[in-house]
Structures are given as C-alpha cells and as structure tokens.
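Re: How this chain folds, sequence and tokenised backbone to follow

Filed under: protein folding, tokenised backbone structure, sequence and structure records.

Contents: The amino acid chain and a row of whole-number tokens, matched residue for residue.

Body of memo: The sequence and its backbone structure tokens, given next.
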Amino acid sequence: QVQLVESGGGLVQAGGSLRLSCAASGGIFSRSFMGWYRQAPGKQRELVATITPQSSTYYINSVKGRFTISRDNSKNTMYLQMNSLKIEDTGVYYCQQNTPGVGRDYWGQGTQVTVSS
C-alpha cells in the first residue's frame, strides 16, 4: 500500500522560504508522476507543480520563478522549495502520486503552510 507523508510546513513571514518534503513508501516511486497541490481556506484544491519520472517539471503561473519541485529517487522523496512566499500561498499542501498501470492516485495527509504579513 502506497503511503505519502508530507512535512516541512509551518508559519513564515511574507518573503520567506519553506521546503516541503513528501516521503513515499509502498510503491514504485521512480516510475511515478508526482505532484504538489494546495487548498486554501474556502477554495478548491489546486495543482501547484508536477514532476515526471524523468524530472520534467511544470508549474502554475503564480509560482513560476519562486517554487522549485524536485525528487530524489534514491530516497523516494519529492520536494518543493518555496521562496519569496506570498500571503496567497497560504494553504494545506498535499503531495500526489500517480504510477502508470496502478489505476489510481494516492494522496498524503497534507501539511499546513501559513504566510503572514
């Protein structure tokens, strides 16, 4: 059974940085497409960034140039480096794993990121 555990969230002032981690177990991490999503209070969950098994990346426009998604297949871990944080980046951040042939996505429990002014 795949398990995803996020960590690294917290309270930070605007302009600050945080590094989120997503530790995966029970699946084939190196073959998986991975993603970070976030959900702000009262809003729907939205995609933030994705990374392919070959480490090709995608970012939504609002985080381009500020966030960096990466992965370490030797540690079965994905990261999200978040710099120049803005108040609107506040939310619960979730990691997602999709492995071709498995037939479903897996989600972590989320980690809270709060950016204050």
Remarks:
- The mean pLDDT is 97.
- The first strand starts at residue 3 and ends at 7.
